[in-house]
Amino acid sequence: MSIARSFNTWRTARRTAHQLSRLSNRELADVGIKREAIYEIALKSARGNTI
């Protein structure tokens, strides 16, 4: 993976994680996400892996 692609993946994951972290615990529970798993889910999403 190139440095630019790695950076873009990291930046996308960070942005996604930030948006998810702004949700309440109740909202996260409604979509089946635990607060502890936010960054992992954001990183998988940024890499294009299925969740």
Structure description:
With 51 residues, the protein is mainly alpha-helical. It is 69% helix and 0% strand. It contains three helices and no strands. The chain has helices at 3-21, 25-30, 38-47. The chain is elongated and about 40 Å long.
Secondary-structure map with pairings?
Blueprint: H1 3-21, H2 25-30, H3 38-47
Helix pairs in contact: 1-3
Mean pLDDT: 94
Question: What is the terminal separation in angstroms?
Answer: 21 Å
Number of strands: 0
Helix content: 55-70%
Structural class of the secondary structure composition? mainly alpha
What value does the Rg take, in angstroms? Answer: 12 Å
**Element-level helix/strand string:** HHH
The parts where pLDDT drops under 50 for at least 5 residues are none
Shape: elongated
Largest sheet: none
Estimate the strand proportion: under 5%
Tally of helical segments: 3
